[in-house]
Specification:
Layout (H helix, E strand, L loop, with lengths): L2 E5 L4 H13 L3 E6 L18 E5 L5 H9 L3 E4 L6 H6 L2 H20 L3 E7 L25 H20 L3 E6 L2 E2 L8 H10 L5 E3 L5 E3 L1 E2 H14 L5 E4 L4 E3 H11 L8 E3 L14 H7 L8 H14 L1 H17 L3
Parallel strand pairs: 1-2, 1-4, 2-3, 4-5, 5-6, 6-11, 7-10, 8-13
Antiparallel strand pairs: 9-12
This protein binds nicotinamide-adenine-dinucleotide and thymidine-5'-diphospho-beta-D-xylose.
Amino acid sequence: MQKILVTGGAGFIGSNFVHYIIANTDSHVTVLDKITYAGNLESIKHLPRDRFTFVRGDIADAATVDPLVADCDVVVHYAAESHNDNSLHDPRPFLDTNIIGTYMLIEAARKHDKRFHHISTDEVYGDLELDAPERFTEDTPYNPSSPYSSTKAGSDLLVRAWVRSFGLRATISNCSNNYGPFQHVEKFIPRQITNVIDGIRPKLYGTGENVRDWIHANDHSSAVLAIIEKGKIGETYLIGAEGEKNNKEVIELILSHLGLETDAYDHVVDRPGHDLRYAIDSTKLRNELGWKPEFSNFDAGIEDTIKWYRDNEYWWRPQKAATEAKYKEQGQ
Ligand code: NAD
Ligand code: TDX
C-alpha cells in the first residue's frame, strides 16, 4: 500500500483528489492542511479510519512538514492561497504559502528522496487573445498577470530548479478552471449559484467576454493519478478538457437551469488585470499517458453542481454572508 501525503486536502480540488484516491486505489492518504478560510473539514469527513489521517498544520512550517514527508512515499502538493481577487487586495499570504510553503516541501522531499507532484494552474502562462487559434502548451512561455498567478509561477520554477540542481523526483501539472461540488462560494460558479438561491442577482465582471476552459474536478483528479503512476520525472503536463466558455454564457446557463430569465444578472466593476482567455492543449497528457476526461457535457455538469449546492446548504452557508460583504466593499 502506497502512502500519499496530500497538502491542501481540505480544499476544493485537494478534497476531491482524496476521495478519488480512497475510491480508486488501496493507498493510505494523510492530509496536511492549515484550514484557512478556504479549508473545510466537512469535505473530508466519513473517510475510512484505517486509510486516512488528518493533520492540521502549515506547509511553511519546516518542523511540521519534515516528519510527514519522511513518512510518506509520494507528496501531492495542492495547498495554496488560490483566489485571484484576494491576491489583489492582500498578496502577502500568497507569498508565504505558495512560495515559502512550496520551498519547505521540496526541501523535505529532497532530504528524504521522495516523489513529489506539484499542482499548478494554466494562469502561469498569462492569457490569450479571444480569437487567437492557439492554446497553451507545455512550451508556452511563463507570463503571469496577478499576484496569485505570479506566486504559482514562482513555485513551479522552484520545483523545476530542484529537479535540475538536486535531482528531485518531481512532476508538475498545470490545469484549467475546475468546477464541481465543494468549491468555495468566493469562486465564480458557486458564487452565482448561491446568489440565485439567496435571491441576489449574479455578478458579472466587466463585459463577461472573458473565456475560461472548464474541467470537472473529478477529471483533474484522474489526471493527477495518471501522472503519479505513469508520468516522467522532470516533466510538466497540461490538464484540460476542451471546455472553453465565456463568463456571460456560464451565467446565462446557471440562470436558465434555475428557472430565471437569462439576463437577470448585474455587470459589476472588472477585476484589475483581468486575464482575457485561457485555453489548454492537453495532447501530451492524452497521448503519452492515455488520459481522457469523463465529464464532457458541461451543461449536465453544471446541472449536477447546482443540485449539489441546493442539497448541501449546510456546507456553504457559514461562508456566504462574509464572502458577499467582502465583495460588496470591493464594488463587486
Ligand atoms: P482552495 O482554496 O479551495 O483550497 C486550498 C486549501 O489549501 C485549503 O484547504 C486551505 O486550508 C489549504 N491551505 C492554504 N494555505 C495553507 C498552508 N499554508 N498550509 C497548509 N494548508 C494550506 O483551492 P483549490 O481551488 O482547491 O486549489 C488547489 C490547488 O489547485 C492550488 O494549488 C491551485 O493553485 C490549483 N489549481 C486550482 C484550480 C481551480 O480552478 N480552482 C485550477 C488549477 C489549479
Ligand atoms: O463574481 C464573479 N464574477 C465574475 O465575472 C467572480 C468571482 C468571477 N468572475 C469572473 C472572473 C474570471 O474571468 O469569472 C471568471 C472565473 O473567476 P474565478 O472563479 O475567480 O477563477 P479564476 O480567476 O479564473 O481562477 C481559477 O482558475 C484557475 C481559480 O480560482 C484558480 O485557483 C485557478 O488557478
